[in-house]
């Protein structure tokens, strides 16, 4: 195995410019959620050029490349959609430049998270060049619509494509650490129904904004009492939007709606989170709902799921975590940091829903995600290319 690891490192370094160039091509293509067609065609071309055994685009628009035909299945996932640019004045360079300069690839999506797929294309090329012949099938997935709805592409892959991996790697940015989980999240809407009256006689009505405001203050206090997990940290809740309605600006508001971003730590569930809010509004004319997501993919297919994204974590002694640690040590000659993401990933469905053992390893620092001046070190791309290939051999 020592010889294999040395060869993997040698090839990942040899293909340094190739990997950076491939990522540059991806970054230059704007690819918001549901608008990924052009970037997906480019990723498919790159997989085919790298010599993958099979490459196809499924009904939702995910690009799936396969190497090997073994009984056990490893999936390596990276989403190809990005968020928009935000305030262009905050950028020091063109977000779509894809410029490779000073040891970085620059642009939106370089970290979150096309750097992972660019790296795993090179991993596939390395596996083919080494004549990979283990009893393993490796699926490399460039997934869609993750920014809009974490895990949605994997709901489709498992339920519609009928691909159910034995283990998985998320290539979301980890700063080259090994991650083994993150908090879950859900989106809750609370609607308040009042009674309108003329603004000159508010006592005749029931103001929905006042109801929502009282509830909001109690929801703020709720943060003090949410569960805590030693690894994942504390649950949290915040109000991210309030919408109100009245017959006119001279009337008592008869409707208000608040949108909650609820982060779930270990042990918290959809049911427990909903119950907490229902308890706060129990004496109000209010309705608590978990939102649904449903949108048309770029393929024209409409698909969706509930906006509940379960918490997940792997125990540090789990064989898949330890395989990642072993691959890292054998490739790079030192122990990795084993940690967690702050944000959410497709792991909410891969592991949180389907229980598929999952770890994270990706190029770039997550603090660059959704931020201006996003850029990823080329050195990270090289190491990620080595890691994915090394992990396949370790399995």
Short description:
The protein has 395 residues and is α+β, with helices and mostly antiparallel strands. The protein has helices at 2-14, 16-27, 37-49, 115-129, 152-159, 208-222, 270-280, 319-332, 347-350, 378-394, and strands at residues 54-57, 63-67, 72-79, 100-101, 104-106, 136-143, 167-170, 178-179, 181-182, 184-193, 228-229, 233-234, 236-245, 255-264, 286-290, 292-296, 302-306, 308-309, 312-313, 338-339, 358-360, 375-377. It has two domains: 2-182 and 311-394, Zn peptidases (Aminopeptidase, 3-Layer(aba) Sandwich); 185-296, Alpha-Beta Plaits, CATH 3.30.70.
Question: Could you characterize the architecture of this molecule?
Answer:
The chain has 395 residues and is of the alpha+beta class. It has 2 domains: 2-182 and 311-394, Aminopeptidase; 185-296, Alpha-Beta Plaits, CATH 3.30.70. Helix content is 31%, strand content 25%. It has helices at residues 2-14, 16-27, 37-49, 115-129, 152-159, 208-222, 270-280, 319-332, 347-350, 378-394, and strands at 54-57, 63-67, 72-79, 100-101, 104-106, 136-143, 167-170, 178-179, 181-182, 184-193, 228-229, 233-234, 236-245, 255-264, 286-290, 292-296, 302-306, 308-309, 312-313, 338-339, 358-360, 375-377. The chain has a 6-stranded mixed beta sheet with strand order 1-2-6-3-7-21, with helices on one face. Strands 10, 13, 14, 15 and 18 form a 5-stranded antiparallel beta sheet that branches. A 3-stranded antiparallel beta sheet has the order 4-5-22. β1 (54-57) and β2 (63-67) form a beta hairpin. α2 (16-27) crosses α10 (378-394). The longest helix has 17 residues, at 378-394. The radius of gyration is 23 Å and the shape is elongated.
């Amino acid at each position: 195995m020592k010889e294999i690891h040395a060869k993997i490192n040698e090839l990942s370094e040899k293909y340094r410019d190739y990997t950076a160039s491939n990522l540059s091509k991806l970054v230059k293509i704007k690819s918001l959620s549901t608008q990924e067609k052009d970037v997906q065609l480019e990723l498919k071309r790159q997989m085919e050029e790298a010599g993958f055994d099979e490459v196809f685009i499924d009904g939702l628009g995910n690009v799936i490349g396969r190497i090997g035909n073994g009984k056990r299945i490893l999936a390596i996932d990276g989403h190809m959609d990005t968020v928009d640019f935000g305030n262009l004045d905050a950028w020091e360079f063109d977000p779509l430049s894809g410029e490779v300069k000073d040891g970085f690839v620059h642009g939106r999506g370089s970290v979150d998270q096309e750097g992972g797929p660019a790296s795993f294309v090179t991993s596939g090329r390395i596996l083919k060049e080494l004549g990979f012949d283990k009893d393993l099938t490796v699926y490399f997935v460039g997934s869609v619509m993750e920014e809009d709805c974490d895990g949605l592409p994997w709901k489709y892959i498992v339920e519609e494509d009928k691909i159910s991996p034995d283990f998985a790697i998320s290539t979301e940015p980890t700063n080259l650490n090994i991650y083994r989980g993150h908090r879950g999240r859900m989106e809750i809407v609370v609607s308040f129904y009042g009674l309108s009256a003329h603004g000159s006689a508010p006592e005749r009505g029931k103001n929905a904004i006042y109801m929502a405001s009282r509830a909001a203050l109690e929801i703020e206090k709720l943060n003090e009492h949410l569960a805590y997990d030693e690894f994942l940290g504390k649950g949290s809740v915040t109000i991210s939007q309030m919408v109100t309605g009245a017959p006119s600006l001279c009337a008592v508001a008869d409707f208000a709606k608040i949108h909650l971003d609820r982060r779930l730590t270990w042990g918290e569930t959809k049911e427990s989170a909903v119950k907490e809010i229902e308890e706060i509004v129990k004496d109000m004319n209010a309705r608590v709902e978990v939102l649904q997501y449903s949108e048309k993919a770029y393929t024209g297919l409409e698909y969706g799921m509930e906006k509940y994204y379960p918490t997940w974590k792997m125990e540090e002694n789990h064989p898949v975590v330890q395989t990642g640690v072993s691959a890292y040590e054998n490739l790079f000659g030192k122990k990795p940091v084993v940690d967690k993401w702050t944000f959410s990933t497709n792991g909410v469905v891969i592991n949180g829903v389907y229980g598929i053992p999952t770890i994270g390893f990706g190029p770039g620092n997550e603090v660059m995600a959704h931020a201006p001046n996003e850029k990823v070190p080329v050195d990270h791309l090289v190491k990620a290319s080595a890691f994915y290939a090394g992990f396949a051999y370790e399995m």
